[in-house]
Specification:
The chain is mainly alpha-helical. The chain is built from twelve helices and no strands. The protein has two domains: 176 residues, MFS general substrate transporter like domains (Growth Hormone, Chain: A, Up-down Bundle); 194 residues, Up-down Bundle (Growth Hormone, Chain: A), CATH 1.20.1250.20.
């Protein structure tokens, strides 16, 4: 049997390079900027607002990016995303008050939004339809590896070489992605009038997997935000291992989920992946057990990773080609909103019930909602793999 050609073409490799560079810059500063805000007198509230402003701008601009793509094309949008994410970081050393820091975070959030929407849409444009899951899985690995590498590197650099060096590195990394631009065509994807987000949201076959994916993003937001707070006793030293297990399992799940969707049909493992996330939350009830804390965080990570590749693949396959940019924006907005809403909602819940009861309640709600929304996913003909 002849060997299948690689799904990674030279143009796709350049898209991956730009995305890796952008995400490296994002994760280098993700924990450093809140720490810097606290160091200039903004305190814990200011630290939280820095991340909040970044993600608020990201979600808002993700929803507006399809219009940007329709007006200016992929190459210009990619350049704008890299510049907005990178250059403002050079101004951080001069931002000695919270207002200036928040303004920079808002601009960088806009750059991040453009990058993730354009990256997802470009993968859908450059990968053959029958290998879309594999392409999305690879893209997911490229996007998540920087979290494993750059997030701890940013913390280490802050402690050993200071804020200015981290800010410079966080600016330089996205700007390196500009080398990919000359090889990318400046075209827009749409060959017909592009679909709006509103019309895309009216497609049940697209909205259902998006909502199931949103549930998995919410469980992931709970884990990354609260594992350090719930691990107690013998499990306390296992926090770093639990977060590592979560990140590693997410990366592996994205890769495997894409391959599986191509071979067996996208959408078939989305509900099981979401239920796995709910089961992982239940394991965290035993916050004093290192094995359950690490295992629970890893299970949520695996389910979240699989759901990422499977959901975006089935959404792209069910939508018309002219809706791809809107699908990309919707999926990325649900990703970021789910992480934030899961953390905020669980924090409010746990304040009333305590962590153990909060995990049980969150797991049951996630499982029930998954079953209610997703039971028809595997029955849809559009979830089957395309003919080879």
């Amino acid at each position: 049997m002849p060997r299948r050609p690689s799904v990674v073409t030279p143009r796709l490799a350049l898209v991956f390079l730009a995305e890796f560079a952008a995400m490296a810059g994002f994760y280098l500063l993700l924990s450093t900027v809140p720490q810097y805000a606290a160091s200039v007198g903004a305190g814990g509230v200011g630290a939280g607002l820095a991340t909040g402003a970044l993600m608020l701008a990201t979600v808002a601009c993700e929803l507006a990016t399809p219009r940007l793509l329709a007006a200016f094309g992929y190459r210009a949008a990619l350049a704008a995303g890299l510049l907005l994410l990178g250059l403002p970081a050079l101004l951080l050393p001069a931002a000695l008050h919270l207002g200036g820091i928040l303004a920079i975070c808002l601009v960088r959030g806009a750059g991040l939004a453009i990058m993730v929407v354009v990256g997802t849409a470009l993968v859908a444009d450059l990968v053959p339809a029958e290998r879309l899951g594999e392409g999305m899985g690879l893209y997911g690995v490229i996007a998540t590896v920087p979290a494993v590498l750059a997030l701890p590197l940013g913390a280490w650099m802050t402690a050993h070489v200071g804020y200015r060096a981290v800010f410079a590195a966080g600016a330089a990394a996205p700007l390196l992605g500009l080398v990919a631009l000359p090889a990318l065509a400046p075209h827009t994807r749409a060959v017909a009038p592009p679909h709006s987000l509103r019309s895309t949201l009216r497609m049940p076959a697209v909205l259902r997997p998006a909502l199931v994916f949103l549930l998995t993003a919410m469980t992931a937001g709970i884990v990354v935000s609260f594992v350090p707070l719930v691990a107690r006793g013998a499990a306390a030293p296992a926090v770093s291992l639990a977060l590592l297990a979560h990140g590693g399992a997410t990366t592996a799940g994205r890769w495997w989920g894409g391959i599986y969707g191509d071979r067996r049909g996208a959408g078939r493992i989305l509900v099981p992946a979401s239920l796995a996330c709910a089961a992982g939350l239940l394991a965290l009830v035993a916050g004093s057990s290192p094995a359950l804390v690490v295992g629970g965080a890893g299970l949520v990570g695996a389910g979240f990773g699989v759901a990422q590749s499977d959901s975006i693949t089935v959404m792209m396959r069910r939508a018309p080609g002219s809706a791809a940019d809107a699908v990309s924006a919707l999926w990325n907005a649900f990703y970021d909103a789910g992480l934030g809403a899961g953390a905020a909602g669980f924090g409010a819940l746990a304040a009333r019930t305590g962590f153990p009861a909060g995990f049980v309640a969150a797991a049951l709600v996630a499982a029930a909602a998954t079953i209610a929304i997703g039971w028809r996913l595997s029955a849809s003909p559009a979830s089957r793999a395309p003919a080879a």
